[in-house]
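Response to reviewer comment R2.3. The reviewers asked that we include at least one raw input/output pair. We reproduce the pair for Isomerase here without editing.
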Amino acid sequence: MDLGTAKRPRIRSMSYQIDPNVLHRVAKQIAGLQLDGDELITRTVELLNGEYPDLVDAAPGRWVGSKAGGILGKVRFLHFSPREYLVIFGSPTGTQGFSGRYKHVDIHKFLIAGRIDSYDLESDDTAPLPPLLPGERTCLERGHARGLTIHPGSWHIEYGRGAVITTLPFAMVDTLLVSLEVESVRRSTVEFAKLVRRRLRR
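Raw output as returned:
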């Protein structure tokens, strides 16, 4: 036996509970059904609960107002842990602004309705990125930033992977300090607390 090999420490890969490929499959299924309104969101949550019953509650959650980087919309929290989060985000009337720049988190988006246009802020290319259409996916890799236009009636599954806690200042500061919208921050805190309690009960 090679003692040098035997003594070499084993490197353990960090595992995650949610698979982006599963989320993409759900988004494609929802996009194919061409649902509208509450039925669109209800069916999406049902499918996500079917894939991750221990993480996503099938019961209707509460919508919370969110403004970050100028992007104003409605968010429903589905799962939150130190290394992953899962939400549904969208706007009935459309919105645009800054994606944020996350140095320790990758942000995956899976569109279930509408359209999202974007462009890379540092690219030498002045052309926009290909539009995100229902059933498609995109990923804002850590350290990158984009300008976004979310068209009216657009809704997507958003999955963050990494040091999730580092995203909270960007998500909260605009809502609290710029918009002075204390109630949205309060509601977000309540929803976070529910998810944490659910996680601790498992």
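DSSP finds five helices and nine strands in the chain. The chain has one domain: 17-201. Further pairs are available on request from the corresponding author.
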